[in-house]
Protein 1
Amino acid sequence: MTHTEAFFGYPRSCGRSGIRNHLLVLNCTGLTDAAARRVAAALPGTVFAGTMYGMGMVGEDAAFHTAALTGMATHPNCGAVLLIGADRTRLDQMIAACQAADRPFAALGLDDTGHDAYLLSQRAISRGAQLLRDLSAMRPEPCPISDLFLAMECGLSDPSSGLAANPLLGQVADWLVDAGGTVVLGESIEWLGTEDALARRAGSPEIGARLKRAVADRLALADAAGLDLLGTNPNAANIKAGLSTIEEKASGAVLKAGSRPIQSVLAYAAPPETTGLHLMDAPSYSPESLTGFVASGAQMVLFTTGLGNSYCSAIAPTLKVTANAGTAQKLPCQIDFDASGAFTGRSLAQLTIDLVAQVTATASGQRTFGEIMGEGAESISRFGAAI
Amino acid sequence: MTIPAYQIHPDDMVAYMLREAPRGATVATPNRTLLARADIPVFHKIALHDIAAGDTVWRGGWPIGHATRNIPAGAHVHTHNLASAYSKTRKIT
């Protein structure tokens, strides 16, 4: 076994293997947020995620929210799930999802404790301790690289992102697709100006039309809000760093997608139906963007930055890459991979070999700085008003 | 002292400074040298040719906007002279 053929992960009875074996404390309703955080804090080594919302969401907003919670509850990196919620309706939905995915879980609701949140926490801590003990008996095993599902993100970009860091991610995307794995890229507004080129790579005319419509819809959203993209995307920090227009930023950003055919345009938080390269029609702000990828099943995020960006997913280890030597030097406990050699003669091929090695090491358990420093959160996007 | 600039594609109209260039500095890409007409911060763009107002500016095979005024070779190219095709406030002056 070489490091580019396999990694040490946690096979699941359903779906892809995990690259971590978290106990996820999943807060399923906004009412129980504090109680669920209390539970996670009492059980070191757990990962906390969830929602601040609950009843009253409607239409596609409600559907995306349910999809995102389901995706997190059944995520490959979570060996077991502690479901916490106020009402049985939402809990029963998540219980069904865990059962369908054959994922060990315990579920505790306020309805069952006479609406005593403290009693809920006590019971949940006890159940969580049992689940953690079970998880601790598991050992990582060799898993095929084709089990990997990587998400590609950029945040606080500068021109070095589009010149070197994003093309490097594109090489890693091509490597993984060729190895039978799965890749997703989101941030639809950052496809702007490149839609025709992306559409030519789409697996069918319908997929091409869908990705073009996704960009047009985001642009219409900005127009309807009376927003000029200049100042929003690129934002003030991007502009100060040297990015002048959305076209300049976008044509550098989409290089993260590499060069392979586009298999589908996913809705927010939707799991891809095939391996290969997928786009997700989603907001570009990193917290919502990353949670969309994670909920769709991505086990790891490759995240390029120009100026530095500390944000990480809680569930999926988030590997930070910069090609800005100054940023790598300034942020030694944030940047996991320094790609600035691209500007001093190191070839893209050599950098790709190095980053692939780091991706497989991370998949096999090496921690990212984000994990070590305790960064990490999940934030489910909202798509409309609630009742 | 020559300051390096990074050019992606031979047809590019701009290159990216790999170090800050003070006004008057000699800037070199693999294909040419030129004089910086302004202080240009690291990773900001320098015009490789004279660019006429209204012209589309190409980089890496992609249009990245259009010149809002005449841009001489060696000038700093940024929001003061380059605008997005998607900007509602775009003006040719």
Protein 2
Amino acid sequence: MKQHRSLSASRRGLIKWGLLGFGGLMIAALPKAVSAQSSGRTITFSADDVGILNFALLLEELEAAFYAAAVDSGQISDSMELEYVQVLGAQEAAHVTFLRSVLGDQVLFETADLSFNSSGLNAVLSDRSTILNTAVTLEDLGVHAYNGAGPSLTNPTFILAAGSIVSVEARHAGGVRALLGRSTTQPDSDRLVSDDDLVASLNPFKGQAYDELYTPGQVVAIVGSLGILNNPINGALVA
Amino acid sequence: MKIYFNSIFYPINQALRPVIVKITALGDRCDQQIKQMQRLGRTIALALPLAMLLLCAGPIAAAQAQEAVLTPRQVTEYALTLEKLEADFYRRAVTAAQSGGLSGVPQAAKDIIVSYGQDEAQHVADLSAVLPSLGGNPDMVVIPTNPNYAAILGRDPFANPADFLLVGQYVEDLGVAAYKGQVQNLLAAGEAGKTVLAAALEIHSVEARHAAGVRFLRQTLLGADVRPWISENARTKQNASSVEVIYNENRMGSPIPFSSDAFDGYATQSEVLALVGPILTEAPQTSQPRPQTPSNQGGSTENNAPRALW
């Protein structure tokens, strides 16, 4: 079991990775994000734990690249807002580092394989309000995506790790929503997937008091609607 | 001694009964729990050791090597207990506000508190509706008429916004950790646990949004040095007025780097109930400042703070 071997990687090792990795990741993601025009290679996710963790990695990469670009845009000038955006970006980068460590040689793509659409990215970086509201969308989406992945995971350490990350994503969502004066929880009017489209068996409860479970397919559709990522996505997980 | 426990701490005993059955090992583990308990601060340092003694001295304590796996029904009953407490906690805050107690707090912040209370009440209603299908009875999941919230800081948490929001942060962060601590149990239950797992996940991240919101209010309204996320190597050991989280957030020995601010820690049921046990006792029936008791005297000058700032 490769993922087990990788998982036993020492905490010290992970932290060292993180410290060494953050700067590199932020730098690596940024030029790609503003320069790539090609569609990038297709990423195919399998419907198992490895596919799910790789899918989570993709969302984390997207978030990390977004925050790096947001900082670089110069549009966030308020010191408190800038601190939030910087810390959130660093935390997403830590998630990237962690997931790459856990996946080891089962990682499906490198950061450099991702191709970000520069016009799409520029559109969401146009001003402070657009940046923060896009952050809310990405963070809300991350919460629903991790929640949706939970019941499909089979490895107990993976579901605990997902839980450890998803509540941080929810804190991000709450924090940025608060900066904007928006509700920290998600009103039904903000819902990214409508009641009718939610999978009933995954969602015993619905409404503002709950963060509903989205399927990977639903998440991919929302990512696509943002127009940021060029890489085609397919595979059994997102079918 | 036993009679003393049974009479004075009967409610704690009741609340911790499942824990006593499930608690793991003596020795190191109890030492660890006592250390955690000390992080709550000196003000409740008398109440908790007693709860801990109950835990550590449970007759079946040594029988199991690690924390037992809870069934989906047990997880639901446990979650419902916490949700009932949270809902009650916010209800009392709203009552305090209605009687003029929240006068120093902006209306927008009051609206947030009301909204979080509604969420918790919704969780109570929906978990209660699910429990019978698991063989349980929501009416058997009870909390005291007047939970002893003063046990958390050693003083009434509804007397001023600073205390209320600090306790709110403790409660919400602990709720997040408590739900996270059950995902492996629910996964282990297989198909039988899928519905409760989905429900727990749906609630878990909303509690984290609440925690973030309360923390944001503390940062922006009170100037507290706190952010929506739990800080790197969060303070858990100092006196109660400066502790960031009351459970063991920076758990070591896991491949998951819990001490990182990018990863939230979890708490087991026994850890949570050890923290909540003192609250699950009937509070003294007074509307005035309570007479000093041994359980809230340890904290020095904290008890001399003005009781009604708003």
